[in-house]
User: Fold this.
Amino acid sequence: MPIKYYEAPDVKDLVQRIVVQLEFHHIDLNGIYCYRSRSSRSKRTVARIHNLSKLWQKALNIPANYLVEVISERYDRLSQEEKEKVLIHELLHIPKGFGGGFRPHKGNITGKKIDALHEKFAGRSR
Assistant:
């Protein structure tokens, strides 16, 4: 069965709340899109972030954009807390310049950092 993609307004809403509450000022919410996929063959992936590379931006004469994809079969089963952590993780891949690149895991994305940011987010959500 081929992968199917659907807009995910619930994910977009949560991403917006995370960006605002964690004061991720470098993230332009107008350049963030959220989709849910079904029938992915990936075994462990819960979510991933896609970028529009600098070359595509130049060719299409458009600004940087990022797409957060959640894998329905795994993401939808998670607790609310785990969903929040997954999305924080994906947003940490977006560099401060919001230029279309990615920040790697090494030195930037750790479980400890995600947990600390989630604590801050959860504290402000109440």
